[in-house]
Design brief:
- The complex is a heterotrimer of chains A (about 190), B (about 160) and C (about 130).
- Chain A has about 190 residues and is an alpha/beta fold.
- Chain A has five helices and seven strands, in the order E-E-H-E-E-E-E-H-E-H-H-H.
- Chain A has two domains: about 100 residues, NADH:ubiquinone oxidoreductase Nqo5 subunit (Beta Polymerase, domain 2); about 50 residues, no CATH class.
- In chain A, strand 4 and strand 5 form a beta hairpin.
- Chain C is an alpha+beta fold and about 130 residues long.
- Chain C has a single domain, classed as Alpha-Beta Plaits (2-Layer Sandwich).
- Helix content of chain C is about 20%, strand content about 25%.
- The termini of chain C are far apart.
- Classes of the chains: A alpha/beta (about 190), B alpha/beta (about 160), C alpha+beta (about 130).
- Chains in contact: A-B, A-C, B-C.
């Protein structure tokens, strides 16, 4: 049986605060939190962190209406909405762990370990060992350190890009991961 | 089906018809793809669940000297799950073997580059047999158990 | 949300016998992957498209004199070709992307091994006619 869904209404919070925007939706009957997430909109060429696009998907049980709330901002810091939606606690902990975003005003600390663990068996909390893995600037180490078999050209020589003598990059490895300095990683983790 | 509570809850026990000296402990690490092939193997009678009366809370250390306990691991091993897998392995009596079923358990498979995935279960436990596939067919499981049994005989573990 | 009346697109939600029978037929055809070595031109497409980087290929260049031609032709000659079955997802992208049909599906079972290194297959193992 096919079920047709009404189109989601998308609301951009704009200058309104995140908490105010979600509080208004909650007041309008959208009391079910389906998803709370963030998109790292970092432009890898600019060398700066962010902006950050926060997204909440809410449902109104009475008529099954759905609404996306969206807020784009430069700071990786935003209000917690656990006072409105208890379920937000899990989502905010995951966002904090994976992106290093701080949520202010939460009833409980988001530093409680959730999904990641240290690489050693029985290791410490990930924030001390991993650099927020889902940030766009965090390199996927395996792709940087594993020799890419595709670097060879037919006939044996190594591939060079036409304009320079630099070797071709493997798929999934942006230039920023290769040219950023090692110090950048440390300052990111401490933010 | 012989499920046990606690850290050993990861595993279920099976016998292989025609191979009475093998006792298979299956650790499903949560992904459905390889688990589907296991279900197919069981539904075709290639694996038979251990009778309930034999599935006690612990595996007896004084087991039949001819029995080889095989830990069949399928699914993706995340770093978070490594301690649990190690506990399961150490809870098995000797002689024991581990069988890596599918690409994830051999090398991390499609998730070879993930920050959260172990590049193969042999980073946590010793592996005797590697079964390629994504996922391997049920027939591949039987081929691997036969290969494992034959190499056990050759190594003098089972008479 | 509102419920719509079932229409003919619903047939895709319930596999009929013919669809199921076809699935069983084709499933057995995708056992493992084999290499037709003479057809390979070392173009590197399979190596670069493989999602898990499990194919490795090395080649060198040779000059071939063409009768009636002023200068020799440059060709790539295949030296080594390996597939690491421990990484392979059996997705078939390499088979699809090869412009020369040098890679193909075979219904045979890829056997297990006691060591990870034994799962790396070279030209001899991959060229076996199954």
């Amino acid at each position: 049986m096919l079920i047709e869904m009404d189109a989601d209404a998308e609301i951009d919070a704009g200058t309104q605060s995140w908490h105010d925007a979600l509080s208004a939706a909650h007041g309008a009957g959208f009391v079910f939190l389906d998803l709370l997430t963030v998109v790292d909109r970092t432009n890898l060429d600019s060398g700066e962190l962010g902006p950050w696009e926060f997204l909440a998907h809410l449902l109104r049980p009475s008529d099954r209406a759905r609404r996306w709330i969206r807020r784009v901002q430069d700071e990786p810091e935003i209000e917690s909405v656990t006072d409105l939606f208890a379920a937000a606690d899990w989502h905010e902990r995951e966002i904090h762990e994976m992106f290093g975003v701080e949520f202010t005003g939460a009833a409980q600390s988001h530093d409680r370990p959730l999904l990641l663990v240290g690489r050693d068996i029985g290791g410490k909390h990930p924030a001390s060992q991993l650099e927020y893995p889902l940030r766009k600037r965090t390199p996927l180490v395996a792709r940087l350190t594993t020799p890419w078999p595709g670097v060879h050209e037919p006939g044996g020589s190594e591939t060079r890009s036409r304009r320079s003598r630099r070797a071709l990059r493997p798929p999934g490895v942006p230039q920023a991961w290769l040219t950023d300095s090692p110090e950048r990683g440390g300052s990111d983790a401490q933010r | 089906m012989g499920t046990i509570l606690g850290p050993m809850a990861l595993i279920r026990r099976y016998r292989v018809p025609g191979m009475p000296h093998l006792r298979a402990h299956v650790a499903d690490l949560g992904l459905a793809c390889c688990a589907v092939e296991f279900v197919a193997a069981v539904s075709r009678g290639l694996l038979v669940p251990e009778p309930p009366e034999n599935a006690s809370a612990t595996v007896e250390p004084e087991t039949d000297q001819h029995t080889v306990d095989v830990l069949i691991v399928s699914g993706t091993l995340t770093h978070a799950l490594e301690p649990a897998l190690l506990r399961v392995w150490e809870g098995l009596p000797q002689p024991r073997s581990a069988l890596a079923f599918g690409a994830c358990t051999i090398s991390g498979g499609p998730y070879w580059d993930s920050y959260a995935v172990a590049p193969g279960i042999d980073h946590a436990i010793p592996v005797t047999r590697y079964v390629p596939g994504c996922p391997p067919r049920p027939e591949a499981l039987i081929e691997a158990l036969v290969g494992l049994a034959e190499s056990s005989v050759t190594a003098g573990k089972v008479s | 949300m509102r419920n719509v009346e079932p229409d003919e697109s619903d047939r895709f939600l319930r596999p009929d016998d013919q669809v199921v029978a076809q699935a069983h037929e084709t499933a057995q055809a995708h056992g493992t992957i084999i290499l037709d070595t003479p057809a390979c031109t070392s173009c590197m497409l399979c190596v670069r498209e493989c999602p898990v980087w499990c194919i490795e290929l090395s080649s060198h260049t040779e000059q071939i004199d063409e009768p009636g031609s002023r200068r020799p032709r440059s060709v790539a000659v295949l030296d080594t070709f390996t597939i690491d079955w421990g990484l392979c997802m059996f997705c078939g992208i390499c088979v699809e992307v090869c412009p020369f049909d040098a890679l193909a599906w075979s219904p045979a079972l890829q056997p297990s091994a006691s060591a990870k290194s034994d799962l790396v297959a070279g030209i001899d193992a991959l060229s076996i006619d199954r």
